[in-house]
Amino acid sequence: MARARWFSPVALVLVIVGGALGVAARAAIVVPLTPALGMHTHPLVVPAATLGINLLGSLLLGFVVGWLDDRHPLARTFLGTGVIGGFTTYSAFAAQSVTTASASPLVGLALIAVSLLGGVLCAAIGLAVGRRVVDRPGEVESAGDAE
Fold first, then answer.
1. Inside any domain, residue 54
2. What is the pLDDT of residues 114-138, one digit of tens each?
3. How confident is the model at residue 43 (pLDDT cuts 50, 70, 90)?
4. Residue 146: its pLDDT value, please?
5. How many domains does the chain have?
6. Is CB count within 10 Å lower at the N or C end of the chain?
7. CA dist 75 to 18, 21, 68, 99, 128, Å?
8. CA dist 104 → 22, 99, 117 (Å)
9. Any domain includes 85
10. Is 3 domain-assigned?
11. H or E element: which one contains 26?
């Protein structure tokens, strides 16, 4: 029996290219809102944009996982790990949560709660829609199989 390769150069290139596209899409949304560019925006504008990006990314990742399942591993690697992984950002969420909670504890806790619960809900909706597209509405994927 052939042993599975632990490293795929093609998959790595797909993740790199997809990640670059995802990061570029996120930057196109967030960078114009950053106060460093001279804009005078409300301090919650960037955390709100990050929240929206992460909720949308959760929905899209759920859809990709439900739609592609394990039938198209390279497409799932490109879209899920690459594009959507680059588009969403846990580190920005974490840093913005701490900063926001330091300035306003209730708003910070609300940001954390909405991000976590909303992300899970969006992922569940995306999975359901993705599975419905391929007519597999009842299947449940193990946590280890999801990106």
1. yes
2. 999 999 999 999 999 999 998 865 5
3. confident
4. 53
5. 1
6. N
7. 10, 14, 8, 36, 19
8. 30, 9, 20
9. yes
10. no
11. helix 9-30
Looking at this protein, which amino acid is placed at residue 121? L
Residue whose structure tokens are 């994927």: 141
Helix (H, G, I), strand (E, B) or coil at 75: helix
Percent residues over pLDDT 90 in the chain: 76
| Cβ neighbours for 49, distance < 8 A, ≥ 6 positions apart | 29, 30, 33
- Quickly count helices (H) and strands (E) in the chain: 6, 0
- In whole angstroms, give the CA distance from residue 66 to residue 126: 7
- Domain presence at residue 2: no
Domain coverage including residue 33? 9-145
Q: What CA–CA distances, in Å, run from 108 to 12, 98, 101?
A: 36, 7, 4
pTM over 0.90? The answer is no
**Nearest alpha-carbon partner for 91 in 23, 21, 35:** 23
